[in-house]
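Quarterly update, task 2.4: guanosine-5'-triphosphate-bound model.
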Amino acid sequence: MFGLLKKSLQKTVAAITEIVGTKRDTISKDELEEILVTSDIEYEIVENMLESLPNSINKIALQNSLASVFFSSNTKSAARIYSQKPFVDLIIGVNGAGKTTTIAKLANLAKKDGKSVILGAGDTFRAAAVEQLSIWAQRLGVQAVTSKIGADPSSVAYDTVNSATSKGIDYAVIDTAGRLHTQTNLAEELKKIVRVCEKALPGAPHRKIAIIDATAGSSAINQAKAFDAMIGLDAVIVTKLDGTAKGGAIFSIVRELGLPILYVGVGEKPDDIEPFDTKTFVDEFVGAIFKD
Ligand SMILES: Nc1nc2c(ncn2[C@@H]2O[C@H](COP(=O)(O)OP(=O)(O)OP(=O)(O)O)[C@@H](O)[C@H]2O)c(=O)[nH]1
Ligand SMILES: [Mg+2]
């Protein structure tokens, strides 16, 4: 289980191994500080953790400390997928975070679960964006709602939800444009998309999911906070965990946003997605430092 999650943490683990050398029974605070900061856990979080740990830290103590990040912050819980029909996900995130790719992955998962899927090309800003989503829809054999470039994205969202309802489709996923969160028109646009989904189907969108690039550091977290302030996020999907040694970013994301991580993206293909599992994640970290 969670093989892809483990695999995607290989570089993070390798970076830790480089600092640790041979695995130990205990580790000093200074060494642990270096490890945690190197893996991209924010300094403030590291300081907080270290405060409550003894000078010589063993496996159990670190395990508990890392796991507590998830217990204390992961308070909001997202709706269970497919708990409604149609179940509607709205995907939000800055440019290049991996929104469209993640939508393909979610559609692929749903298909494997035997669910019918419709995609909404709500990024009407760029011609390439609509095309990218349509290509994925074709490849995966799912439906897509598209419109002309520059069309109102909320009308695409409305059509997607309505189409899903009238055709009896199980799962609808709506893409959005990834312009910067500082633009007030993006805030208005996103709010309108949410309003319009709700109008088409009370309760929709069932999840407003932020896509966060694991390699983007604290700026990505601040952007997600801005999205949360705009429309209230329900959950997060962390992308590009493969190919980075900064797996510790996950701790920062959870601590800062207090949102559940639904999945992690571990590559560019539709199958490169894995449910996030706290225990596996913490065990990989701890296992890189301590003897069994
Ligand atoms: N390695 C890796 N690459 C990813 C992952 N997810 C997305 N990508 C790549 O990241 C790039 C951007 O992905 P998109 O899905 O187009 O991102 P987006 O958020 O839709 O971007 P815009 O539409 O421009 O806002 C593409 O080259 C993807 O293949 C992942 O989990 N791992
Ligand atoms: Mg896109």
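Highlight for this quarter: The chain has a mean pLDDT of 92.
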